[in-house]
Amino acid sequence: MKNPLLAPELRDYLESGNDEALTLFLDSGHPRVIADFLSALTPSEAWKILSVGDLSLAAEIFSEMDEWFQADIAETLSRQELAHLVTEMAHDDRVDLLGRIPENRRLRILSALAVAEREDIRKLSAYDEGSAGSVMTSDYATLSPELTAVEAIDKLRHEAPDKETIYYAYVLDGKRRLIGFVSLKDLILAPPHEKVEEIMNLGVISVRVSDDQEFAAREIQKYGLIALPVINGGDALVGIITHDDAIDIITKEHTEDLEKFMAIQGSHDAASYLRTPALTHFKNRVFWVVGLAATGLISGGILHHFEATLSSLMILALYMPMLADTGGNTGSQSATVVIRALALNEITAKDMLQVLWKELRIALMLATVLAAVAWFKVELLSGGTPLPGGFTLTQVGGAIVLALAIQVVTSTLVGALLPLGAARLKLDPAVVASPALTTVVDITGLLIYFTCARVILGV
User: Fold this and answer.
1) Which regions span the lipid bilayer (predicted)?
2) What is the bridge-based pairing of β-strands 237-242 and 227-231?
């Protein structure tokens, strides 16, 4: 996020070579705040200011910048400058940065890194995209069970500058298997000569490297953790996922689900809206828009089939939008709550009958209220209007109200059934529900409307 408030002053400091003022600026606030101010400058200006301060601070501020601005700055740096910056970055952050750099340049940067950093990057980037392993960091604190509390604190004191967090320290056996953890609070409050194995918590909540990243983030949210250990198939600790990474994962997943629910394709990356080319936006939207427009031919065919009914009683046309809107609204509500419940693992596809029974009861209550509203609307808008064929307003209104009530019930049930069916078929409920729901509600709404008109009114 850009904050242009200090941009003129920062440019003046650059032009005058006032390194002292720039150093004070870099140390003046939270790295995210500094990153927002620097993002209002050009990439080359931002890097010149970062270069004035300590490299570790520059890496911390750089990591807080938006991904697109990081990539722009990286483009301006020499191979050696970027290698030094990558070395100072948090382990997971540098893997993410290198993943956004073209492969030929990435290989040149990796060759400029020390062997330890290069091997760490190779390991972290080897995990499948979207897995817990792909978002973890290998920058964590460990303790052996034989240490005393005072020895453990001394060890953490020396390691703290190089670790992402020391609030949790993980206790490992000789084969690096995770056997427990201690918090910094536990160590401080423990008697100085009490051993770690006597202090540590045995009930460690962890995830596997192959687990979905969203599941890992939900575990952090569920248990209020600062960090979550990640283990491999042999129960050896290979990394941790921190709470700030969990927030990023949940935010990204929410964005992805929202865009999928609105039938937007693409990678669903958190890229800047204005920086994304119009052609990319077009490609992400056109498929479903065209597909749904094509399915409108079915609705047109239904209207053509009931053309005689509509011609003989044009008042029916006045209330078609109400029926379509009401069905769409109730169906979308049902789909939204079911998709949310699926995402949070509150329900599964096996709970389909329970969910449908609950939604049926809700739909019947909604149908009762909305039918009353529809009847009032018919009386208000069409009261006193002469009707052809000797029909009364009560007859016509009854057909409209009945159709609306049936539409509410069917739309609500379809809204719940589509995401549950998608989940059972191992498809993404958000992708399937929204586009299909719109189409199904439109088609069923017209069929219900004109069928009720024919049965009750005989037209």
Assistant:
1) 286-306, 360-376, 396-418, 430-457
2) antiparallel
